[in-house]
Design goal:
This protein has 409 residues and is mainly α. The chain contains 16 helices and no strands.
Length: 409
């Protein structure tokens, strides 16, 4: 398998400058994603997405008490196990409306924050794609379009959740380390900060920590590794210690069980069932909205087409990988670790959604970027047509959906 030489932007073009340049190139796509995000915010019934009521309870707790919740206390749910970063941001956005007594507006303001998070994530995924494959016009715009128009990412990001922010922080940490700036200790500290925030958002961001640790060790960048590890520990370590003190384990799972929440393993953990669940959570938000709607055959065909397109994109990514960048190995390693951990936990311990394996989204969008090697217009059609079709089908079924709000408080 051959690899194309890389002119990936490292050193000469800083990450900040590259993100600004990508933004100028793809702003129409970002605008389209913003409009789609607004539609999802407004049309998806409040509390319908899985876990949104529990996440919103956390935000309300921060607004009302000004501190982290503890599992089992009144006004909390199972998501009280999560770190504070996402909820602090949501609370800051919702606070002005909450103080005026407009809690409904506060909720939708929190949802709207997810649009901004998705746009930032899309730009980061485009930068990751440009460092994963050899430079070619169209890589960034294809990767960005595939992110901001993805119905699953739109549904998740425009609900109150912590997946998008965790993925953005982890992606930014990978980009910071790969860039190799002239002041490596500063870069290592920045990566540690981003990794710490990712863990304080959702602990399932751990594959980013492991991938970067292995990379720095393999490259014998020991001092950078130590700095990154130290900053990560300073930023997020206190939260793990808190869990250990309160619940007896660092992940807070014992606290979830003690509070009476039971999430048994999947009844069917066969490879086919796991693959079906993974594919669904890549593209189709039907399960995410509690299966109140079911996809017809034509939507299933589009989902299959998207999956096959990404599989072909992975082949192209390997063929045209960036030879001077460690990003291809980081993207593949992060995805493999996240998917393996999700499959093991879902089969043996508890029924967790594939969203816990979303670090694999870096591989998915690097594959989309690689599809630009068959032509930018072809790749855009391949991605945008089925994604927008699913978006429109999903939103059409959200309009007038007769479901009672599941929000508490």
């Amino acid at each position: 398998m051959t690899a194309a030489p890389s002119t990936v932007a490292t050193g000469a073009e800083t990450l900040r400058a590259e993100l600004a340049r990508i933004t100028r190139q793809v702003w129409p796509v970002l605008l389209a994603g913003t409009l789609a995000g607004v539609a999802f915010v407004v049309l998806v019934p409040a509390g319908l997405p899985y876990d949104e009521p529990a996440h919103w309870l956390n935000v309300q707790f921060y607004l009302g008490h000004g501190r982290m919740p503890t599992l089992g206390e009144p006004g909390t749910s199972y998501e009280a196990q999560m770190g504070p970063f996402a909820y602090v941001l949501y609370a800051l956005v919702a606070a002005p409306f909450h103080l005026l007594g407009a809690d409904t507006a506060a909720f939708y303001a929190a949802r709207a924050l997810g649009i901004a998070q998705l746009l930032v994530l899309a730009l980061l995924l485009a930068a990751v794609a440009r460092r994963t494959v050899a430079i070619r016009p169209g890589v960034a715009i294809v990767a960005t379009a595939a992110a901001v128009l993805n119905p699953m990412l739109l549904a998740v990001s425009t609900s109150v959740q912590n997946d998008t922010l965790a993925l953005a922080c982890g992606s930014a940490a990978l980009l910071a380390v790969v860039e190799r700036r002239p002041r490596p200790m500063h870069t290592a500290a920045l990566a540690g900060l981003l990794l710490g925030l990712a863990l304080l958002t959702k602990v399932t961001a751990w594959p980013f920590v492991v991938a970067l640790g292995v990379l720095l060790l393999w490259q014998r960048r020991v001092r950078e590794l130590l700095v990154m590890a130290l900053v990560t520990a300073v930023v997020s370590g206190w939260w793990f210690v808190r869990n250990l003190v309160l619940y007896g384990d660092v992940t807070a799972r014992a606290g979830v069980e003690a509070a009476g929440y039971d999430f048994p393993a999947l009844p069917d953990a066969s490879p086919m069932a796991l693959a079906k669940s993974a594919v669904t959570y890549l593209w189709l938000p039907t399960e995410y909205v509690r299966n109140v709607i079911a996809a017809p055959a034509v939507i299933d065909v589009l989902v299959a087409a998207l999956t096959l397109a990404v599989a072909a994109g992975v082949v192209l990514m390997l063929r045209y990988r960036a030879t001077r960048s460690p990003m291809p190995l980081l993207v593949i390693g992060t995805a493999m670790a996240a998917i393996a951990a999700w499959a093991a936990v879902a089969a043996v311990a508890q029924a967790v959604a594939f969203r816990t394996a979303y670090p694999a989204m870096l591989l998915v969008h690097a594959a989309w970027g690689a599809c630009a090697f068959v032509g930018t217009r072809r790749a855009l059609v391949l991605a945008v047509v089925p994604l927008v079709t699913i978006d429109l089908w999903f939103l059409a079924h959200m309009v007038g959906l007769d479901v009672e709000s599941m929000l508490v408080g």
